[in-house]
């Protein structure tokens, strides 16, 4: 059922199931993100066999067809949301909720069905604790509605979950650069030093930066900065989080440093970017 926002006069089309039994999946009206925390699920998704062992994620669209064949001690939870929830707020989350473009694009490929997207994205051992924490916060925010910005925070964590799953689906753990990239994608909200990345990749600074330059066109720390700014741009466009909160969520210790880096790399201040990104959507 949709959530009734007790702080504002609106309906928010999302829900969280702390215990998912798979009987009502896929949801015909919503996208579903299912987090399997223990056990193993075997089934058929769109006429193709799937097997999801914990920790695992199942991304289901409204048009998917899922038949569960076997559940082996499965424990799972799910977050379901209407596509309208991915749309940006009109001006402020403190006003009424008006779905409109632009919509969040990060992670939507996970719900498409083609040769590279099967509905079961890759999860690594390092990513699991972070996903578990973010899912826990999603469930808490949906049911507690702790303050007037609860829906805004849910968008923040959804963007982070999608971004991490999308990044993991593009890589593997076979090369030193992949190991460093995974570390960045799972820890970018915290302080990261070049020394940490060299230890993770088991390479010295010169070799790591050379490999990063060849693959990503920048150094390891340069990639870290660009990834942080990419997440920050999504949060600016799709939430009304203040600049200090966005800075902290993306690994910048001070909002002044975040503003300086964003302005330098994007050619405009974060505030200007927020205004332009939303105005641009209205002329599409």
Note down, in words, how this protein is organized.
It is a single chain. By secondary structure, the protein is of the alpha+beta class. The chain folds into 2 domains: 3-122, Jelly Rolls (Sandwich); 176-281, Homeodomain-like (Arc Repressor Mutant, subunit A), CATH 1.10.10. It is built from 9 helices and 9 strands. The longest helix has 20 residues, at 150-169. The two termini are 32 Å apart. It comes from Paenibacillus campinasensis. Keywords: DNA-binding, Transcription, Transcription regulation. Residues 178-276 form the HTH araC/xylS-type domain. It holds the Pfam family HTH_18.
Compile the SSE list and pairings.
Elements: E1 3-4, E2 11-12, E3 14-17, E4 31-45, E5 48-53, E6 56-60, E7 66-81, E8 87-88, E9 100-103, H1 127-144, H2 150-169, H3 176-187, H4 194-201, H5 205-216, H6 220-238, H7 243-249, H8 255-266, H9 270-281
Antiparallel strand pairs: 1-2, 3-7, 4-5, 4-6, 4-7, 8-9
Helix pairs in contact: 1-2, 2-6, 3-4, 7-8
What is the class of the largest domain in the CATH system?
A: Mainly Beta
The proportion of residues in beta strands is 15-25%
| CATH topology title of the largest domain | Jelly Rolls
Structural class: alpha+beta
Major sheet details:
5 strands, antiparallel
Instruction: Give the radius of gyration.
Output: 19 Å
CATH architecture of the largest domain: Sandwich
